Amino acid sequence: MARFRLGLIAHDQKKAAMVEWAERHRRKLALCDLYSTGTTGARVLERCPELRITRFKSGPLGGDQQIGALIAEGQLDGLVFFVDPLSPHPHDVDVKALTRLALVYDIPMACNPSTADLVVAGFEAAFRRRA
Ligand SMILES: O=C(CO)COP(=O)(O)O
């Protein structure tokens, strides 16, 4: 059975929320191939070392663009991207480009934990249908 391919990214002020969210869903995330920017993936793996995460560069160094390339190539089924709306980001153009590609290719994109809960529930339902 194909595994879901899910991107995980969080801005610095949202990393604690990402770790908490990933831990809460770790059993379902273990059924996914996960892709993350550098620091986000490292933080999640500290708490959930069993997860299979391919880590790209840190966001400001091109990681957002690498995740965007996966979307453009049809290699990502969903994106959980906890955006910090209250801080400036030096790579804001990359953030915008990534969210734009998620819209262009119509992949589910969750930008906060409550939406990410719904996305995971959707994956669960799809797993059940496939089983
Ligand atoms: O900057 C980011 C998203 O725009 C995230 O990058 P890191 O996970 O490397 O902190």
Brief sketch in words of this structure:
With 131 residues, the protein is of the alpha/beta class. The protein is built from six helices and five strands, in the order βααβαβαβαβα. Residues 9, 11, 37-40, 58-60, 63-64, 95 line the site of 1,3-dihydroxyacetonephosphate (13P).
Structural overview:
The radius of gyration is 14 Å and the shape is globular. The model has no long low-confidence stretch (mean pLDDT 95). It has a 5-stranded parallel sheet with strand order 3-2-1-4-5, with helices on both faces. It has a single domain (4-130), classed as Rossmann fold (3-Layer(aba) Sandwich). With 131 residues, the chain is an alpha/beta fold. The protein is built from 6 helices and 5 strands, in the order E-H-H-E-H-E-H-E-H-E-H. Helix content is 50%, strand content 17%. The longest helix has 18 residues, at 113-130. Strand 4, helix 5 (92-104) and strand 5 form a beta-alpha-beta unit. Bound molecules: 1,3-dihydroxyacetonephosphate. The site of 1,3-dihydroxyacetonephosphate (13P) has 12 residues, from helix 3 and helix 4.
The CATH superfamily is identified as Methylglyoxal synthase-like domain
Strand fraction band? Answer: 15-25%
Radius of gyration based on Cα positions: 14 Å
Number of helix segments?
A: 6
Uncertain spans, ≥5 residues at pLDDT below 50?
none
Q: For the report, how would you describe the main beta sheet?
A: 5 strands, parallel
Largest sheet, spatial ordering of strands: 3-2-1-4-5
Order of helices and strands: EHHEHEHEHEH
**Proportion of residues in helical segments:** 40-55%
* Total number of distinct structural domains: 1
Class of secondary structure makeup:
alpha/beta
**Mean of residue pLDDT values:** 95
Question: Looking at the structure, what is the overall shape?
Answer: globular
EC number: 4.2.3.3
Keywords: Lyase
Active site: 64 (proton donor/acceptor)
Catalytic activity: dihydroxyacetone phosphate = methylglyoxal + phosphate
